[in-house]
Automatic annotation (TrEMBL), chain A:
<comment type="similarity">
    <text>Belongs to the ABC transporter superfamily.</text>
</comment>
<dbReference type="GO" id="GO:0015807">
    <property type="term" value="P:L-amino acid transport"/>
</dbReference>
<dbReference type="Pfam" id="PF00005">
    <property type="entry name" value="ABC_tran"/>
</dbReference>
<protein>
    <submittedName>
        <fullName>ABC transporter ATP-binding protein</fullName>
    </submittedName>
</protein>
<dbReference type="InterPro" id="IPR027417">
    <property type="entry name" value="P-loop_NTPase"/>
</dbReference>
<dbReference type="InterPro" id="IPR052156">
    <property type="entry name" value="BCAA_Transport_ATP-bd_LivF"/>
</dbReference>
<dbReference type="InterPro" id="IPR017871">
    <property type="entry name" value="ABC_transporter-like_CS"/>
</dbReference>
UniProtKB/TrEMBL annotation, chain B:
<feature type="transmembrane region" description="Helical">
    <location>
        <begin position="114"/>
        <end position="132"/>
    </location>
</feature>
<dbReference type="GO" id="GO:0005886">
    <property type="term" value="C:plasma membrane"/>
</dbReference>
<dbReference type="InterPro" id="IPR001851">
    <property type="entry name" value="ABC_transp_permease"/>
</dbReference>
<keyword id="KW-0812">Transmembrane</keyword>
<feature type="transmembrane region" description="Helical">
    <location>
        <begin position="64"/>
        <end position="82"/>
    </location>
</feature>
<dbReference type="InterPro" id="IPR043428">
    <property type="entry name" value="LivM-like"/>
</dbReference>
<feature type="transmembrane region" description="Helical">
    <location>
        <begin position="32"/>
        <end position="52"/>
    </location>
</feature>
UniProtKB/TrEMBL annotation, chain C:
<feature type="transmembrane region" description="Helical">
    <location>
        <begin position="134"/>
        <end position="158"/>
    </location>
</feature>
<keyword id="KW-0029">Amino-acid transport</keyword>
<dbReference type="Pfam" id="PF02653">
    <property type="entry name" value="BPD_transp_2"/>
</dbReference>
<keyword id="KW-1133">Transmembrane helix</keyword>
<feature type="transmembrane region" description="Helical">
    <location>
        <begin position="260"/>
        <end position="279"/>
    </location>
</feature>
<feature type="transmembrane region" description="Helical">
    <location>
        <begin position="222"/>
        <end position="248"/>
    </location>
</feature>
<dbReference type="InterPro" id="IPR052157">
    <property type="entry name" value="BCAA_transport_permease"/>
</dbReference>
Length: 250, 366, 293
């Protein structure tokens, strides 16, 4: 019996009649950073969406031991799963601060009182947001929007934060900075992180564990140290890690 | 199996035509007038079908176009002594012109504004009729002692019989023309525009011209129907063409099934006979209100239960029953990826309804 | 000059009614993407409810909040029961639904209360206010103040409260709002409730002047649609400003354009709207966005 914060067993997801995930076993422990690697179309985004319950699935999925399979997206978010979607999903006409406040509205009841402190903490983590708090989010640069989206998700005080392709469309310098911040998040905000990312090099540097997805299946998984050798990833990307999906032993 | 059904459709139409030709000789002249009015209304509904079902545009003003065609024709006949067969095309032509104008305006304004524009026309039209009293006869309108569509002496037909046959022929011709229009090259352009303006533009379809053409033809057909209606009834009054009538036509198109031509007959039958039915049940005084309520409920039910309309969904059922096939009605529904209606991940089904969509049109016009 | 100012003032007070309806249209349009042709009928029904309540002996100032609450409930119900089912069915279906609602509510009111116009008591009493040669009835002034107050309250609701924040978020990006724990359906319902309540104020304030009949709001709604288009339905401020402009244009046209007169003056606001929209497709305050593929 695992003590994972999030557990999925044989998770299957489909869009209409097209099955996209074919039985994913995943386990994330409290405070852990896991990176989800894989080529385009491997099912990374779908897996994140399945976890945040905006895609219909079969199979078991539990958060801190509680089954969330039948929950709505909104309820799941309130229960402590933050999700920074692909393309960031900021509200362009709302100001930066309104975006962040909106994030704060989703937090569990017990944590309402610390909203103000958390807002200050977001601004401390991303100082650039503090400078632009009154500006419409649509006017921010790509990197700033990404920070806003992450800050907004943190305002909900998630136990688990899912981030989809944070580096997408960002300049290398900005990506570098962003990953430095991401590495610090789990300590400052006491949350686990599940990162779907194309940039294997940077994400492997900050993650504890990597899971490689290809064709809707887990093709490799293990501590990031195992993946430092580029060949392992390459093979996993190509789906050559034959046989059963690798079970991760903790 | 499907080929059977496909073959059955023209046979069905031929049978309907035969029955149509027999009807005037078995039905009383009094009842025949209602049937003739139904045929005229069916023309307007068919025009609306072209617009709504095939080019994906809306008009809440076809009642006004129907009225305009009627007034144009009856004025020419009653005031200027034209023969009916030359007045009817003029009625259609006047509406074609107005349709072009409205279409251009609507396209320039973009997006949902066509709805606004057409309902404005529907609202202003009766006011104009009352205002232009010297031409239109004001509130009392124009009426004639009997229908100017008179049978030639040699035929031995009564006036209602002849009127019915003329309208039947006109409707048959109209449906044939419309059908050929949407099955041809233009039909494919229509389908492309309806599915996605962006896609159509990317495939070299001139989106604006296609939409404009649909609107103009639809208006002309409605006007022609209106001309027949007014001439058969030998009367045109502003009260017949108020906004609710325009909405009723829209309802008829949707309820009958805006992508089937048979639907236009069903829709028109509802328009004509529902108020009569209501009158028998609740009396003349509130019959209009009750039938309006029934329309509304029927419209809502159709939207929710049978989005392809009565005929549309019936024929889809028939197709399903007769084996695997590319259903003629269902082929129009192009799945739009993983966010289709009814799929469970509704949170993502409705990205950017509203302003964005409107601007999609706006941007294309640039 | 005084004459012109007087016309503008009169236009302003009717224009606020259009602006109010347009505000309701805008709230629904932003939330559900639906151009709600039945907004006028919904508002008229609210006015009938007020009339019924006052005739039953309830004081006007008690009947008004009751009506507003009932209207909000009705609006929410329509969203939940009807609009929700057409989710994702497209603009045309939603427009058709709103037309069906227009037809249905109109028929329902005609059946219950007949189409005969009824006098609707003015809550503000009779009388005339004069100032610098301009005059205004107490009813006009009262409705002006009421509408401005309601608009201010609506603005506060949307811009200063967390309810408003959620409403705006769900309207802008429902998928993202879900990921932030907002129940999309709930907030769309609340949006409809707000719109219905706003419309109720418009009707109750306009009814003493227009006299109450099932078709009372038909022309105001048309003008509100024009107002929303003129100002931009994607902007609440735009809708209100559009309403005021339309009201003034309508009034000036009926007074100064030869041959138009009271009945055909409605042409002027539509011409104005068409002109503006041709130059700015999204309306005066609307946001133009490029196509996102």
């Amino acid at each position: 019996m695992s003590t994972g914060l999030l557990e999925t067993r044989r998770l299957v997801a489909r869009y209409g009649s097209v099955e996209v995930l074919h039985g994913i076993d995943l386990s994330i422990s409290p405070g852990e950073i896991v990176v989800l690697l894989g080529p385009n179309g491997a099912g990374k985004t779908t897996l994140l969406r399945a976890i945040s319950r905006v895609v219909a699935t079969r199979g078991a999925i539990t958060l801190a031991g509680v089954s969330i399979g039948g929950w709505s997206g909104a309820r799941t978010a309130r229960a402590g799963i933050g999700h920074v979607p692909e393309g960031r999903g900021t509200f362009p006409d709302l100001t930066v601060e309104e975006n962040l406040r909106l994030g704060g509205l989703a937090r569990p009841k017990g944590r309402r009182s610390t909203t103000r402190e958390d807002l200050a903490q977001v601004y401390a983590t991303f100082p650039v947001l503090a400078d632009m708090r009154r500006r419409a989010a649509g006017l921010l640069s790509g990197g700033q929007q990404q920070m806003l989206a992450i800050g907004r998700a943190l305002m909900a005080r998630p136990q688990l934060l899912l981030i989809d392709e944070p580096s997408l469309g960002l300049a290398p310098m900005v990506t570098q900075q962003l990953f430095e911040v991401l590495a610090g998040i789990r300590g400052e905000w006491s949350t686990s992180l599940l990162l779907a990312e194309q940039n294997a090099r940077l994400s492997l540097r900050i993650a504890d564990r990597a899971v490689v997805l290809a064709g809707g299946r887990v093709t490799a998984a293990g501590p990031t140290a195992d993946f430092r050798d580029g060949d392992v990833i390459r093979r996993a990307y190509l789906g050559e890690a034959a046989g059963d999906p690798v079970e991760d032993e903790k | 199996m499907n080929t059977h059904l496909r073959r059955a459709v023209p046979i069905g139409w031929a049978a309907a035509l035969v029955i149509g030709v027999v009807v005037p000789f078995v039905v009383s002249d009094y009842d025949l007038l209602d049937l003739t009015r139904m045929l005229a209304v069916a023309m307007a509904v068919a025009g609306l079908n072209l617009l709504l079902g095939h080019s994906g545009q809306i008009s809440v003003g076809h009642g006004a176009l129907f009225g305009l065609g009627g007034y144009a024709a009856i004025i020419l006949v009653a005031t200027y002594g034209w023969p009916w067969w030359s007045a009817v095309p003029v009625g259609g032509a006047v509406c074609l012109a107005l349709g072009l104008l409205l279409g251009v305006l609507g396209l320039t304004m973009g997006g949902a504004n066509l709805g606004l524009l057409t309902i404005a026309v529907a609202a202003i039209f009766p006011l104009l009729l009352i205002r232009l009293k010297p031409i239109t006869g004001g509130t009392f309108g124009i009426f004639m002692a009997h229908s100017p569509i008179e049978p030639p002496a040699w035929s031995g037909l009564t006036e209602p019989q002849f009127g019915f046959l003329v309208c039947l022929a006109a409707l048959a011709l109209t449906l044939l023309v419309l059908r050929n229009l949407v099955t041809g090259r233009l039909g494919r352009a229509f389908a492309a525009v309806r599915t996605s303006t962006l896609l159509a533009a990317a495939n070299g379809v001139n989106v604006n011209r296609t939409k404009l053409m649909a609107f103009a033809v639809s208006a002309a057909v409605a006007g022609t129907g209106g001309a027949f209606y007014a001439l058969v009834a030998a009367i045109a009054v502003p009260d017949s063409y108020l906004v609710p009538f325009s909405i009723t036509l829209l309802a008829a198109s949707v309820v009958g099934g805006s992508r089937t031509w048979a639907g236009s007959l069903v829709g028109a039958a509802i328009v004509i006979y529902l108020p009569k039915l209501a009158e028998n049940i609740v009396g003349a005084e509130s019959a209009g209100n009750w039938s309006q309520l029934v329309y509304a409920c029927g419209l809502v039910l159709t939207l929710i239960v049978a989005p392809s309309g009565l005929i549309g969904d019936l024929s889809r059922l028939a197709h399903r029953a007769t084996g695997p096939q590319r259903g003629r009605t269902s082929s129009a529904r192009i799945p739009c990826g993983p966010g289709q209606r009814g799929s469970p991940q509704q949170a993502d089904v409705r990205p950017h309804v509203g302003p964005d969509r409107e601007d999609t049109h706006g941007a294309l016009q640039k | 000059m005084t004459e012109l100012l007087q016309q503008v003032l009169d236009g302003l007070s009717t224009g606020l009614v259009y602006g109010m309806l347009a505000l309701a249209l805008s709230v629904i349009f932003q939330g559900t993407g639906m151009l709600n042709f039945s907004q006028g009928e919904m508002a008229t029904l609210s006015a009938y409810v007020t009339l019924v309540l006052t005739q039953a002996g309830v004081g006007f100032w008690v009947a008004l909040p009751l009506t507003v609450a009932l209207s909000a409930g009705g609006g929410a119900l329509i969203e939940r029961v009807l609009v929700r089912r057409l989710e994702g069915a497209g603009e045309l279906s939603l427009l058709t639904l709103s037309v069906a609602l227009l037809l249905g509510l109109n028929a329902l009111m005609s059946i219950i209360w007949t189409t005969d116009p009824r006098t609707f008591p003015s809550p503000f009493g009779k009388g005339l206010i004069e100032f610098a040669g301009l005059h205004m009835t107490v009813q006009q002034a009262g409705s002006l103040i009421t509408l401005l107050a309601v608009m201010a309250a609506t603005a506060l609701l949307f811009n200063r409260t967390s309810v408003g924040l959620r409403l705006r978020a769900v309207a802008q990006n429902p998928a993202s709002a879900t990921l932030l724990g907002q129940h999309q359906g709930l907030w769309l319902m609340v949006g409809w409730a707000v719109a219905a309540a706003v419309g109720a104020f418009a009707a109750v304030v306009a009814a003493p002047v227009l006299t109450l009949s099932p078709g009372m709001m038909a022309f105001p709604l048309l003008l509100a649609l024009a107002a929303g288009t003129l100002g931009g339905l994607s902007s609440r401020v735009g809708a209100v400003v559009g309403g005021v402009l339309i009201g003034i244009a309508d009034n000036l046209a009926s007074r100064y354009v030869p041959g138009l007169g009271r009945d055909l003056a409605i042409v002027a606001p539509f011409a104005l709207t068409a002109l503006v929209v041709m130059l700015r497709p999204a309306g005066l305050f609307g946001k133009t966005r490029t196509v996102r593929v």
